[in-house]
Structure formats: C-alpha cells, structure tokens
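Table S5 (text form). Sequence records supplied for joint modeling of the two-component complex.
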Amino acid sequence: MTAETTLEPVANPRASFFRRLPVVSHFNKSVGLQRFMLVVGLVLTGIFLLTALAAPLLAPYGFAQLSDADGNFPTQQEPGGKHLLGTTVGGYDVLSRVIWGTQTALLVIIVAVILSIFAGVILGLVSGYIGGWLDRILVVVADAIYAFPSLLVAIVMAIVISGGQSSLLGGILAAAISITVVFIPQYFRVIRAETIRLKAEPFVESAKVVGASNVRIMTRHIYRNATRTLPLIFTLNASEAILTLAGLGFLGFGIEPSSAAEWGFDLNKALADTTSGIWWTGLFPGLAIVWTVLGLTLVGESINDLNDPRLRGRKRATRKAAASAAPAAAGPGTETESSNP
Amino acid sequence: MTTLIDAPPSDADALLPSKKKAAGGGLGQYILVRFLLIFPTILILVTMVFFLMRITGDPITAAMGGRLPPDQLQERIHAAGYDRPLLVQYFEYLGQLATGNFGTTLSDNRQVTEMLTTYGAATLELSINALIVALLVGIPLGMVAAHRRDHLPDAVLRILAILFYATPVFFAGMLLKLVFSVWLHWLPVAGRAGTRTELSLTALEAPTGIYWLDALRSGNMAAFSDVMSHAVLPALALGLLTAGIFLRLVRTNVIGTLGKDYVEAGRSRGVSEFRLVTKHAYKPALIPIITVMGLQIAVMLGGAVLTETTFEWKGLGFQLANYLTARDFVAVQGIVVLLAVIVAVTNFIVDIVAALIDPRVRY
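The corresponding structure-token record, covering 704 residues in total, follows.
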C-alpha cells in the first residue's frame, strides 16, 4: 500500500502529554465513521497483542503437541469435543496452532520493523545529508528493490539466510530479515526526503555556524525532526510484514511446524485438504491472518486519513444536514486547529 | 491538455540533487533519461540475485547435493565452470544475458528461454484476467464511494476495500475453491484447462500460449468455455486483492476533484450527478490512478506467485515455487531476471504516460 503522507503537526503543542500521544491525539480528532474504524482497528490489534502475550495460558495444547494422556490426537478430526477447531492432517490441534501463531507473528513484526527502521533511518539520514554520488547510488538501489515484487525479494533472502528450512529463532530471524530488506527502501525514501528538506532549514545552518559536527547535526537536529511520520509507516508495514510472512510460509519458506506455529505454513498444508472438503484446517489460520492484518491496517489507515486534512471528516461538517455534508466536507481543508502557533 | 510544452524550471530541482540531470529538457530528453534508467535497475537486480544466490553455494551442489557421490559432484561442478572465481562467472553470466542466453535448467534440463516463454504466457493470461476483474470492480465502486462520501455505501465499500487487502490471496483462493468448486461444484478446482482441451490447444499451429486466445482463434467453443471456467476463480482471487487498492485510489482522487470549482459550475449548469462523477471529476483524477496502477504490476506479480500455487496454474509463479523447492537456481535466476525486466519496463511506460498526460511531471 503506497500511502501518501502529509506532514503536519498532529497534536496541539499546548495539550497535555497524554493527549499528544500519536494514537490518542488521532482519536480525539476523529469523528463518525473514522472514529469507528480507528476503534475497530485498535480493538482487533489489542486482542491480537493480548492473545500473543497470553498464548501459554490460552492455548489448550502446545503448538507441536501430537498426543496427550489419552494417546495420539486423531488426524483431520472435525471441530468439536476435545479439539474445538479440529485437528490437521499431521495431527496438530488447530486452535492451539492459531493461538501460538500470534506469538510468531508478533515476534516477526517486532524484529522486522525494528531492524528496518534502524537500517532505513541511518541510510536515509546519511544519504540525504551527505548527498553526492553516494546518495545517487543508494537511491537507484533502493528504487530497484522498491519496484520489485516484495515477496520475491523476501523469498530470495529467505533462501540465502536459512537455506529454506529453519528452527524457531533462525526461522523468525530469517523471515524478519527477509521482510526487512523489503522495507528498508521505504524508510530510506521517507527519511531521505525529510533530511534533504531539513538540511536547508535555518536551524541546521546555525548549528553549522556554531561548529557542531556533521554527526551531531544528523543525530540531534535532523533525526529528531525527520522521524515524525514513522508511526504511520510502522502500522502500515506491520500489516505488510504479516502478509509477507504468511506468503513465505505458504510457499514453504517459513518456519518448521515443530519449532513454531506459523499461519502461512498451516495454510500450505491445508491446501490439499480443501479439495476433499476439509475446511477447518485452512479457515481458522486464514481468519487469524485477516484479523491481524485488518486490525493493523484499520489503525494505520485511520491515522493516515486523519493526518490528511483533505480526507479528514470534520466535526462541524458532519453536524450539518446530511444532504449538504458531502460537497462541504470535500472542500480543501484549511481549518486545522492544530497548526496554529 | 497539450502535451508538448516544455516544463518550466521549478524550485523542486534544487531539492532533488539526484534528479538534476533530468531537469530542464523537453519530453524527448525526459523519455531518454527514463529509458536509460531501465538498465541500471535491471543490472542492480540481476547483480543482487546472482551474488545472493551464490552465497548459498553453487547451483549443482544445491540441486544434487546428497544425491551424487562427492567426486561425481565435483566433476559436474567443474564441467559447468562453477569452481571458477565468482567475478569471472558473474561477467560471463552478464555476457550470456546480453545475448539472450539464460542457460539450461538443472532440474529438468530445459532451455530457460523456452521455459520462460511457455510459462510466461500463462502468467500473462492470469494477470490480464485479474486486471480486468480489478478494473471492473475497483473503478465503479470507487466512484460510488466518492460520490456517497461519508454515507453508508462509502462506509461499506471502504471496509470492503480494506478487507480485500487484508485477505491473503491464497486464503481468498482457498475460500473460493471451497465454496464454488468443492461445495457447489460449479467451477473446476485447479489448473488452466481440462486435459482434453489442453491437448487440443497445444496441438494448434503457432499457439500464443494464452489459452482463451488460442481457443477463440481455432473456433473451438467447447475449449473456450472450458478455459473460461478454469480462469474465473484465479482471476477473482488475484483481481479482488487489486480491486481493493483501485477502489481506495479512485475514491481518494475523485473526492479531491469533486471539490473543484468546475464541478460545482457543472452542477449549477444542470449536469447530472452521474455525469459529474464519471466524466468531470474522474478524468482529471486519472493521472495519479495510472501511476499507482503501474506500481501495482509488481504487487500483482508477487500475488501471481501465490495465486498460481493455490490453483496449480502452471505459470511462472507456480514454476518458481517448484524450482525453488528443487533448488534449481539457474531457473530461479532466469525467472527473477524476466520479472525485473517486466517491472522496469512497466515503470518506464507509466512514467511516460504520466508525463504525456501532465507536463508538470517532467520537472
């Protein structure tokens, strides 16, 4: 998803710290449908996070557990009884694997996003600040990777890193690094563009005049100002990370079922079941993916819309009669309560 | 809209040092610069894939390791020249690519070029079908959402668009398969055509490889309907994913233009709402839409890999997954290079179209 981000101070600088927090300030600014979408997104994401944290308590069995005190689990058993969502062709409990899968997904998101912010921000700062041939080369390389199907980049990286099969930690790292390579260009672009803009600002020049080193200017003066849009890219990327992880797993480059539960891998195994009418092995891991991506996307989308005055529904406009609301709200948004000094 | 006016020099150039070279010229120079930019893009991707693949070892060990005794393995590696310095191999590979020689696959010993044309046609067919679905669904619904902004239809459509995006294409495919093939028995489960149709189509003289085109050319209506029934589900699965993106795109841009004065002027002259949305507001909104649609080609190719695997659609993506499992890196490299070329050329075309529509794009 290529989101157009407009830079605009999100919160009133005089408001309390709590009301200026990214999501809170967006919530206060939202109305009607937008608030509804933001709330739904937050609820879905919250449940995902809670499930991931409480997975050991919630899951009836381990993710790789094939038997209990009563003997081996039956294979491809219909939902109900001891196995609420049935069992897979390999004899795993579907519910347990769906629940444990949240942990894998969360770990991969965290590692991938942290790694790509780290690498992308550093590269963007350096490239934008120093400029010259280094900048040109980095831009061309980043554009080349950016233009290429991200899933294929991730596949190539997954082969390189793990050779295709992997343990829990290795698998999560491999998946996360593969996704990182896809995302670095995005962070790189945003930070580089911001850095170039900020480089011309008077406060950078004055820092130079008083003798600040390049590193200090980059880390103190530019970095602080260039990273305002990161929360937005973060939420949009987190949902893309889930989809990439699932895609990798579906093609057989994910994590082995004995080392972690991964939804994409389970869907891969369930593909053959579908033809014989066995729906429960694929449906539930798939719904888990949709749930998580939907939650993260709704949050990211809402923040994006609320940052863009043209797309933001305005409180006064919605109070008017419904008939006149549409054309009135579509006008170029100028009254942004936040940007007044 | 006139298309041959030189772009006025703008301050944006000063902000984009890397683009300075492209500034100031007319359309011809802009096209030339964009065209030349295709080559570094392809070269970078080819270089990356080549060296990344070689980090994991040579293709022969990867494909045959464990299945051949070590001395025979060494012999084959030597015969194929994989024990020479990496840089020598790299430049030799580049030289081969320049002459259109992609090598021979390791796992099934086919010419990579032949493999690419055979399966490329299948992927092209799938992409065209999916694009048709995406355009038919995405653009009208986007207009409806923009017109009924902040009302119930808009709310439903926006949530639908996000839902399309949030559903992985293989999960959507699986659900479609389950409902329409397994439960309702309306459509075939997988593949591009029935066995008999496939045989009759490959027996044709100079087949294009695009099945519905071949069936139409031969006038075989039974084959045509068979091919079509196979095409519906994969096209829906891949098309709906893209339709969600198109819907949002059309909605956002049409909302932007609906607020313009000339739309209001049109309304006051008594132009119908339908005409306002589909003509007055939609046309100026096309520029960003076309640009993003071009970028969607890359997303679609990635999605095609997953769709083809889901539906056993024997195209590039399906083969890519197979070759990856077989660790046939020669074939994988070939496919990746072809996709890189497609992406680079598409981006070039999109840039040119955008520049033709709107002179301001050519800095």
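Note: Residues 1-8, 316-341 of chain A have pLDDT under 50 and may be disordered.
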